[in-house]
Amino acid sequence: MKKSLTFLLIGSLAASMGHLQAADSGISDDTIGLSRTSVFDDPSPDTFAYSDKDPSSAGVLPRAYLDAPPQVPHKIEQFLPIKEGKNMCIVCHDKPGMMGKKTKGIATAMPESHYNKVDGSWQRSNGRFNCTQCHTPQANVPELVGNTFRPE
Fold first, then answer.
1. Does this model's pTM top 0.70?
2. Could you give the angle at the alpha carbon of 13 between the alpha carbons of 9 and 14, nearest 5°?
3. For strand 115-118 and strand 121-124, is the pairing parallel, antiparallel, or unpaired?
4. Which residues pair with 124 in a beta bridge?
5. How far is Cα 56 from Cα 104, in angstroms, rounded to an integer?
6. What angle do CA 107, 113, 116 make, to 5 degrees?
7. Quick count: other Cβ atoms within 10 Å of Cβ 74?
8. Secondary structure element (H or E) that encloses residue 112, with its range
9. Are residues 64 and 141 in contact, defined by beta-carbon separation less than 8 angstroms?
10. DSSP secondary-structure letter at 125?
11. Where are the alpha helices (DSSP H) in 62-128?
């Protein structure tokens, strides 16, 4: 008798829970995340193009923040892929004698951190061949997501 009463109680409880769930409308898909849009929306950024300027006339872009890596002010598609044995960036930027000097109309020399001093002379560090890991080409692109970051 006790077992049948327990099963009857469990069965009626399960039935009432099913009824409550069916009556509930659930959570709307536009209230789940922080963006207050449907989780099924797929925002696509506008198309953009990198600067068409020739590397020799592109100039220097401002740094995003203090000690940020310099931004690349020209297209780099023709220089890709960058590999340890094939790095077109160093053709213009490997100038150890020009480190730290400001030049106009000449490619900026790589900084001292990209070299090792061996027997009194500067040699390029083998671990610094992947330039696009830190240095990125820039384009005038609107933000896809709002950003309040401001450098100090």
1. no
2. 120
3. antiparallel
4. 115
5. 10
6. 105
7. 20
8. none
9. no
10. -
11. 89-93
Residues in the chain: 152
Q: Please name the residue that has the structure tokens 């400001």.
A: 102
Contact (Cβ atoms closer than 8 angstroms) between residue 36 and residue 30: yes
Structure tokens at 12: 């009626």
How many Å is the maximal CA-CA distance in the chain?
96
Q: The tokens 């160093």 sit on which residue? A: 90
Give, for all 152 residues of the chain, the pLDDT tens digit: 566 667 667 767 666 665 555 445 677 777 777 777 777 777 777 777 777 777 767 777 888 788 888 888 888 888 888 888 888 988 888 888 888 887 777 888 888 888 888 888 888 887 888 888 888 888 777 777 777 877 66
* The two three-digit tokens of residue 131, written as one number: 């330039």
Beta strand ranges found along 25-136 (DSSP E): 115-118, 121-124
Classify burial at 71, counting beta carbons within 10 Å of its beta carbon; exposed 0-12, middle 13-18, buried 19 or more.
Answer: middle
Tokens of 32: 């789940």
Looking at residue 105, its amino acid is: G
Helix, strand or coil for residue 72? strand
Question: Encoding tokens for residue 107?
Answer: 């490619």
59, 51 Cβ separation under 8 angstroms: no
